[in-house]
Amino acid sequence: MTTKLKELEVYASILKGLQERWRPHAGQIEVGRALINDGIRDLFVQAGRNWGKTNLVSYLLWRWALMNPGSENYYFAPYMKQAREIIWAPRIIQNFGPREWIQGDPNNTEMRITFKNGSFIKADGSDNVESYRGVKPKGLIIFDEFKDFREEFYEAFDPNRAAHNAPLVIIGTPPGRESQFTKVREAYKLDPTKRYFHGPTSQNPYISKDWLSRKKLELEARGEEDVWQREYEAMDVAHSQTKLFPMLKREHIKTHAEVLQRIKKDRKRLDWILWCDPAAASTFAVMFAVHNPYTKELFILDEIYETEQQRLTVNQIGPRIKAIREELEDRYEWRQGYDEAATWFANEMLDNFSEHYEPSNKSANQKEAGLTLIKDMLLQNKLIISDRCVKTFWEMDNYYKDGTGKIPKVFDHLIDNLRYILAALFYSLPETDAPQEPRFGPPTKIGDDFPQLKGLI
After folding, report:
1. CB 122 within 8 A of CB 73
2. pTM to 2 decimal places
């Protein structure tokens, strides 16, 4: 048997080991062929959610590492913590191919897999700029979720590829604004030596068309048509300047008597909770709510919205909180919290009134996720607002994001309290069936890549 044929047999065994457990769709195959068959060294993939980005890059990293002994292959997410969450903690990259090809155990600290042929795959984040300024990789590089990459990382790392002509695959959803993502993408489109791909979510045949239809209707109901176009159609659509809560209607407001009647029979089984957004110079806001864990309904019962400077002290606000709390419910214990940035408030409430308040945990609760949850509650009629809560309705009715997709930090004191309450309750709504991309399926025919091996294996 010739050396060339032996080499092909080794490559074929690698392909068989990888592809017998994963079936790429047409869009993924197109990217893979450009990199491996056509020898393209710069690829840019603008793809929608659930297009199959993670499985594709895992396959490409394994295949490159195994077919190029001694190669140094890197997967980068915007942040090291994000890389761990996307590809390492779920053990996607560690378990993508046969375990017997790996040397020893994967290094969880470094997020590194070392293969018996001397190659490795390492995951990291673009926030680790200084560590890679002098690194000249000789292997495949992946930049995932590129829209959130640190610009200085790309500027520092990209020139290092020249030393060994290391290939780079940039992949992610578009950002909805001019950024490094759009500048680099346009450069790839104009350069004939580089390759650009567009992959909407619908290109993935393993994602239910019914699920996509429901998701589209869901986003439209939230007033987020731009999100659908950008994140699922992978289109260049700017963030729209829209209301955050277009689904908020007067029907969500009930008379206070009606609200009390609705919670009357379940009072002792409910979660009574209030949250404070303290201020010493602007607006001091307090929200009083009750949660029915059986129906998933959250009732906003009352509020304090104080803007007069002389009435913003704890000595002024404390008695008002107590009076409203006792009027609404004085038999069952209230859970009480505050914006963690105002430690002075918790200390003064403890010193002056011997009352304990728990802090919010902003780092564990993303603002966008909290606002989306509120939207879904409104759509499912799980959020009921007493007519006492005039300022709560006013804030929500006048809450807009600007043309860059940012949410101005103004007139959101009670909205913040609502987010903190939901986070403290670990509130969630039943999810629609999430799409699952199967990793396991019929093997790809090895002869498609190596016609010489047809009938040999």
Report:
1. yes
2. 0.65
